[in-house]
Phospholipid-transporting ATPase (Parasponia andersonii), 1235 residues
Amino acid sequence: MTRGRIRAKLRQSHLYTFNCLRPSASETEGPHPLPRPGHSRTIYCNQPLLHRKKPLKYCSNFISTTKYNPITFLPKALFEQFRRVANVYFLLAAIISLTAVSPFSPVSMIAPLAFVVGLSMAKEALEDWRRFLQDMKVNLRKVSVHKGDGVFGYRPWHKIRVGDVVKVEKDQFFPADLLLLSSSYEDGICYVETMNLDGETNLKVKRCLEVTLPVDDDEAFKDFRGTIQCEDPNPNLYTFVGNLEYDRQVYPLDPSQILLRDSKLRNTAYVYGVVIFTGHDSKVMQNATKSPSKRSRIERKMDYIIYLLFSLLVLISLVSSIGFAVKTKFQMPDAWYLRPDNTEDMYNPKKPALSGLIHLVTALILYGYLIPISLYVSIEVVKVLQATFINQDIHMYCEETGNPAQARTSNLNEELGQVDTILSDKTGTLTCNQMDFLKCSIAGSAYGARSSEVELAAAKQMAIDLGEQEDELSNFPMQKSSAPSSWENRMASEIELETVVTSSYEKDHKPTIKGFSFEDSRLMNGNWLKEPNADVLLLFFRILAVCHTAIPELNEETGSFTYEAESPDEGAFLVAAREFGFEFCKRTQSSVFVREKYPSLVEREYKILGMLDFTSKRKRMSVIVRDEDGQIFLLCKGADSIIFDRLSKNGRMYEEIASKHLNEYGEAGLRTLALAYRKLKESEYSAWNSEFQKAKTSMGTDRETMLEQVSDMIEKELVLVGATAVEDKLQKGVPQCIDKLAQAGLKIWVLTGDKMETAINIGYACSLLRQGMKKICITTTINSDTLAQDSKETFLLFANDQAVKENIINQITNASRMVKLEKDPHAAFALIIDGKTLSYALEDDIKDQFLGLAVDCASVICCRVSPKQKAMVTRLVKEGTGKTTLAIGDGANDVGMIQEADIGVGISGVEGMQAVMASDFSIAQFRFLERLLVVHGHWCYKRIAQMICYFFYKNIAFGLTLFYFEAFTGFSGQSIYDDWYMLSFNVILTSLPVISLGVFEQDVSSEVCLQFPALYQQGPRNLFFDWYRILGWMGNGVYSSLIIFFLNIIIFYDQAYRAGGQTADMTVMGTAMFTCIIWAVNCQIALTMSHFTWIQHLLVWGSIVMWYLFLLLYGMMSPIYSGNAYKILIEALGPAPIFWSATLLVTITCNLPYLAHISFQRSFNPMDHHIIQEIKYYKKDVEDQHMWTRERSKARQETKIGFTARVDAKIRQLRGRLQKKQTSIIIQNAAESTL
């Protein structure tokens, strides 16, 4: 608390100089007019009892992200189940089974349907129950609430009401949207982290009204009263309009006094606030969308297959009913033993049409086995088991947080294998928001020996490619000369040296200082004093230590200072300055104190005379200070293009060499800033300061423009000192993960609430952007400085607000034309757009053009987007491309896009669980997305696709034999199979093998999936569930049904099958045919499997054994139960050799075409996984490593983003230089030979 009070003495207006000085009550613009409707909310502060009755009763603070509640569960869950067409059919069949026309008993139809639907509903209920428990974790969080008489006590979040005064302590989340009344700081400021809202981790400063500053302890709230009139609930995070009536005066409110739910209080002991919006009225929940019901593409396609099978069912039922009607009319009168003169309508020869119609209903139920009711239940079981494997995958377990991967819904497992576009948040998802000071250029000298991640990858790849380059060299028709050889050796040695240095460094010098990965002894431990330009180095370090807005905090345990900075870059600069011997240790309202260790320890004071903040428009920051000698300096840091344009003629001494270093740093994926200074005369500063104070205290709308103009007056005639290069600390494995996903053919979009510059730098760090990539930046603000920043960038800028929309259309059209006319096959485009422009681009008449341009670009970055815009962009991509989208994020601001995407993935990090609660899958870090998609997604897609195709195959093979027999027996409606055979077919005898296929099948191992990422494209291209394959399996089922039926008829018809001369009756025929079906379909699934474990062997061959055991036990039961099947195996079929011969012959004949097909395909038109399987089977990956490496390099999609694309670009650049070098050598040698 003492430390807080000390820090509270800092008036933040001295730090944030673009904010005008705090006006007194008399100077304020006055209360906001609050028009109605839209601004009708009234809150009585500290009087929550008044809000218990309407019209002042507002929604509770209880939140829910579940799909169902106790009232809606039954109707909504039933609706979900009967969205499936097959379930609708079986529901109708179950209803019809209650009538006399049904060939089966009602129980045999109703029980399976109730079991299937009930099991699926139970699974839905379980998953929603888990969501409910996670919601309750949030709802039951405790916060201190004023209970009356100045007494505060803890209360669960969900019991907080509008008007309550709450006390939030350090590192707690705000339970609702609050009006800040006071804080532990004397000037009423507090620091807020809004990561869950806008993705930014740099702290925001909020401040209360001056009038409520005295209300700063528990006792002060005993008699506190006030009335707030404000806007109604809305999703706008950055606006707020309202008035506070307090002590008979009205004070205007703005967003700087509002603390939003799910923000976190940081570096402030406590704050007091009054609740304005609760629960679903809060701005973060207003940005949330309802939890949608998602279905996978395969499941939706299954509906069309069901339609097709239902059409086949209706067709054969019509054939059957017509045949029955014809038979009834023409043959029934001759069948005197059936008493046609005294029969029901079903067999009445006088009403054949009615008889045929009734028989149609019978046939529709009889042939119902064509539509597999157990398919859905089998899929549910398989998906739950697949989800269990995802949850248990040790490779997706994060040891740091203890969080495993979690499939929060198993409905979408196969969708993981069909993703086309990934839409990712930035902060907390891609980044750790940590910068490391890596290199610097000072006075024309480059410092910093450590390589960036991009340099390491390039060196490694070049070392691999060296052999190929040597082959290319050998093809050049040059004379023998030592020059090429020496150059070649030098190149090889450079690569070898870089690799060795890097690897040894990684082993011996693991970074221990957060924010500082610099390695160069010339600058460390005071050695910089021995450098030739020590005075410039001194100035460089002082700029790092003084030019910032950070606040130091003493770590009492270590004795060193940590820094609360506006941006991670600034924090890294201060850590670097500290390590170089210039420790920023104290800040007052007017001074900055720095401890300089070299040449001797001394604490210097720099008086702050003025500060010009960094903004995305200015791209620079300056501070004007007076040193202890009375000299005035302007210290400036900013984008190199901005600084270089403001250099004086005498200040350009190091410009050329610094530009070269900056380009090298940029190619290495580092974030760069240039540092410069200017020495000011007292009179010059005084004249400028008077103008600056006028602009600073002006109250007009053009205050910011005036400040910008005054700043430009002083920020010129600079002298360049040097440049810095910091490395974005991405989450572990992010660049590699993005690279692998890009090689797998996935497109990656970044949607962030962060600034454009930050987003672009992160794009470079994770290789979504690279040097040489042509950037199309769409923004609605003009910035002449930006135009000069990169000559390769295409900036689409707008001046006239009224013409913005038309200009956006024109510029998108021009950009699209530019992309399409590009002839360089290696050219890559990146689209970068901000939230304001995006609001126009998402309008109905522009969005299709915008999407077309975005799809043509290699990478897309949307910055400064709101949570709702994230969801709208996701919807546009999903609906516009018609392909599977995956959204991934970690904060409440990502919930909208997570729910809108086909698949939502939440990062279960340390900052809240909102994203996880709304997601379909959760992982601990972004890097696990690689395994989730490339391994589990690939497996799940192929397993489910093969499983469904096989399911339809076996049911067609079984169901059509019923039709053939009915046609064979005069369309009598008679089934050839015993009822118990039919009931056990899907439930017992064929269900377990198909489940084992869906759970354990692997075309290749997980390691191979990661080594050959292009295999993933089998999913997005839908190679295993397209109509060609589906119809092929159906055709296989029709073929098998024909063979099974007619081959058995030929074998058993009109001849004895037993030694005693007995011929086959219907039961024998049915049992023989059913045995052939069991053998054929189980052998077929064995041929389909690529990966066998003992479990598959047990289930496949055990199912066949199970059939014989069933036949044996069923036949031993009393004839009352077994009927004609009494002892059929022991006495009838078992002793008959023809039965076993027929089974063998039919099984081989059924599976022969499939065996021939896969043999031909593997021999002449193999798929990717076939080749890999063969290589692995013959162990060529071990015996011929070169061949294995070559195949791996082929097995990646051509991509223009990611590490690999970046390294490829670097290699193309180096090869170009090599070719030029070789050409010059040839010319030189030719010239020498002529002489």
Q: What stands out?
A: Residues 403-432+733-783+802-933 form a domain with the Rossmann fold fold (CATH 3.40.50.1000).
